[in-house]
Structure formats: C-alpha cells, structure tokens
Write a structure and sequence with these properties.
about 120 residues, mainly beta, 7-stranded mixed sheet, 4-stranded antiparallel sheet, about 50% strand
Length: about 120
C-alpha cells in the first residue's frame, strides 16, 4: 500500500522556523523525485520545492529560495523527505503536501500525494 504521510505542521509566528517531514512507503521511492507543494485558502496548489532521487538536484519556487531547504533520506523501506522552513512569513500559510513522481515543478509530474499538513503563520 502506497503511503505518503506528512507531519510537523503547526502554528508559528512570523520569523520562526518549522521542519516538515514526509514518510513515503509502499513503493521504491528511492527511485522517485520527492516534492513539496502548498495550497492556501482560495488559491491553487503551487510548487514549493523538489529533490531528485539521486539527491544531486533540487529546485525551489522563487518565493521560498534562501528560506526553505528540501532534503531526503533514502532508507530501505521508508523514504523520508524534509522541508526546513526558516524565516516564515504570513504568506507561507497553507496546507503543505508532499508528492512523489518525476523531477518537476508541476503538480502533474507527481503520481503519489500525501494528505497534507497545515502551516499557519498569523498576521
């Protein structure tokens, strides 16, 4: 059974840091790119960051460059992908989703999705 389970979301103040985690199991996810997307209320889902299967390539949305860092751990049975978020802003408020698929900044490139974790940065 394929499972992508996010954790680590919460309510934080502007300027704080938060680390999201996603556990991917049920496939050989070490062969997949793993990405993070987010969706704010009333807005479309948008790309945040992605890391390729070989850990050698990463890509970030302009809005998070220099503040967010994506990393992964290709363990044997469960692959983990992390999103370290620093200097959080009000506009980072969204539900954050991890996804597995091809190395892309488009949601259509990803086949498997988690249920999401809420990140709230109040104004």
């Amino acid at each position: 059974q394929v499972r992508l389970v996010e954790s680590g979301g919460g309510l934080v103040q502007a300027g704080d840091s938060l680390r999201l985690s996603c556990a991917a199991s049920g496939r050989t996810f070490s062969n997949y790119a793993l990405g993070w997307f987010r969706q704010a209320p009333g807005k479309e889902r948008e790309f945040v960051a992605t890391i390729n299967w070989d850990l050698n390539s990463t890509n970030y949305a302009d809005s998070v460059k220099g503040r967010f860092t994506v990393s992964r751990d290709n363990a044997k049975n469960t692959v983990w992908v992390y999103l370290q978020m620093n200097s959080l802003k009000v506009e980072d408020t969204a539900v954050y989703y991890c996804a597995a698929g091809t190395y892309s900044d488009h949601a259509g490139g990803y086949k498997y999705w988690g249920q999401g974790t809420q990140v709230t940065v109040p104004s």
